[in-house]
Write a structure and sequence with these properties.
The chain has 186 residues and is α/β, with parallel strands linked by helices. The chain is built from five helices and eight strands; from the N terminus they run E-E-E-H-E-E-H-E-E-H-H-H-E. It has a four-stranded mixed β-sheet with strand order 3-2-5-4. The longest helix has 9 residues.
């Protein structure tokens, strides 16, 4: 991970909840500067930190915010949606049979041909070769047991999992609000 001192392309702002925690780690909760300026004028956010870049209009002049916090707390305890991205995030972007991060698909643990449903409790991330090798068999029949049990994650678990995947670069003004595993910051 690279810490940059100049503004990232597009001047995005890190969005924090009212408790100063990021709304999301993965993907990182960033808003484009245009949305941030609008939120500032609608009095929906507080500016925490700014870039050196200024924007002007006939009636105003302001530095672009680099970190903002919402004025109203957004509850984060809703059940995560069952999406391909959230499934891959739950499983650490790795095949649950061999550990490969390449050519990922999803696999029905109990095949659909045998009544398996498309739910959190029956889907795991699988690379295409493992998915093909398992085919329409159960894990026991294929002798391919998933590394982790397929289950519905909480929003908190997905946020924790997202901390394992920091972006390639972070602006220095964001660092006080983001917490990744120490070994990943080197």
């Amino acid at each position: 991970m690279q810490v940059i001192t100049g503004a990232p392309a597009g001047y995005p702002a890190l969005v924090l909840n009212a408790d100063f925690r990021p709304l999301s780690y993965y993907p990182l909760s960033l808003w484009p500067w245009q949305d941030v300026v609008k939120a500032v004028f609608l009095d929906r956010v507080d500016i925490v930190s700014t870039y050196d870049k200024r924007v002007h209009s006939p009636t105003m002049d302001m530095c672009l915010p680099s970190v903002i916090s919402l004025k109203q707390y957004v509850t984060q305890d809703r059940t995560p949606a069952f999406t391909r991205f959230n499934l891959f995030l739950r499983d650490g972007f790795a095949c649950q049979y061999c550990g490969s991060p390449d050519d990922l698909t999803f696999d029905h643990v109990i095949p659909r041909s045998r009544g398996g449903r498309t739910t959190w409790r029956n889907i795991v991330t699988a690379c295409a070769p493992c998915n093909l090798a398992k085919g329409g068999r159960t894990p026991a029949e294929a002798r391919m047991i998933p590394r982790r049990e397929a289950r519905r994650p909480s929003g908190f678990e997905l946020q924790q999992q997202g901390r394992r995947f920091p972006p390639h670069h972070l602006h220095e003004s964001w660092l006080d609000y983001l917490y990744w595993d120490i070994e990943l910051q080197a």
